[in-house]
Amino acid sequence: MVKTVGIEPMPFVVRAARFVMTLQVAFGLVGLVFLAGAVLAAFAPGPLLLFGVQVTFLLLTGWLMERFGARRTWTLWAAVALELLQVGGAVAVDALDPGLDLERVLFATVLGPLPVVVLLLLPPSWRWFSSRDRADTPS
Questions:
Q1: What is the CB-side half-sphere exposure of residue 105 using CA atoms within 13 A?
Q2: 8 Å CB contact between 90 and 108
């Protein structure tokens, strides 16, 4: 007789956070194409550094999205930290840019990362990411 194992489905808030992160990666790849054009046009250190940072954020975001199924608490905290780092990085880049205004800061930083942080800090997300760690600890 085959014994079936019940798999707990991923909560809606975790799926929604992963979807928003997917959109971030998709739009980030589009932005990377435009940024690559700027880097090639004026081979200056500023755009080149920004290009490297953007690639790093995209790779880390994609890797963390893939790790959501592992249900480890470190994945939750790493995703929250990465999203908050993206907010801080975008504000820092905008602060260095002479055209900084409130509308630009809110659009660049709040629409993507902040909803992910809020979704990941909700109780269903906590339960999802901590249930595997509780199952692994010996009683």
A1: 14
A2: yes
